[in-house]
Amino acid sequence: MDNTKGKKQLIIEASIKMFCKKGFHKTKVSDIATEAGVGKGTIYEYFDSKKQLFIEMMEYLADQYYNKVLKVMNEEKNITNKFKYYILLEEKIMTKHGDLAQLFMQEAHSIGIDVHQIMGKKRKKLINLIANAIKEGIDKNIFRKINPYTAALTFMGSVHHILYSKIFAKDDFSKEINIEDLHDILLHGIKK
């Protein structure tokens, strides 16, 4: 067992691997324990049930995602570049983990977990982060005065939908998608 990580984190990370490999219903707690290098009883010291472990795993992944976005937004000082790097990060994460996210959403639904209730607070934090960057742009007279929350939702929704088309749909339009164009359109609009 890796002593640099706590047992709870090791168990969560092992559950990610096992749920990906076998799905929720076919994964046994003993499978997760073996993958984590702990006894089956140790898992129940941290989690009441396999379902509780699945919920905390989803929250863990959402926190990992949020922390990556927070780092990108805080490290970049140029307002417009913050949004460019957000798009690039989204593309990277969706390319690397998009199938995983879709699988977990399906699994959560199949076992009766209300994903929206669990992820609602995480989503709100992310919207606030993007809206605050937009407010900063408004305050610095880089962006026009608009509702920052509407703009954040528009920006995030557009990015997600376009990247979904590019990465998963792979339709006739997906090969036309260019990240630089996406950034330009979202920040400057389509007006001449």
Automatic annotation (TrEMBL):
Gene3D superfamilies: Homeodomain-like, Tetracycline Repressor, domain 2. The keyword Isomerase does not apply. GO terms for biological process: negative regulation of DNA-templated transcription. Residues 28-47 bind DNA. It holds the Pfam family TetR_N. Residues 5-65 form the HTH tetR-type domain. It comes from the Bacteria. GO terms for molecular function: DNA binding. InterPro entries: Homeodomain-like_sf, HTH-type_Tx_Regulator, HTH_TetR, Tet_transcr_reg_TetR-rel_C_sf. PROSITE patterns: HTH_TETR_2. This is TetR/AcrR family transcriptional regulator. Keywords: DNA-binding, Transcription, Transcription regulation. Signal peptide: none annotated. It comes from Crassaminicella thermophila.
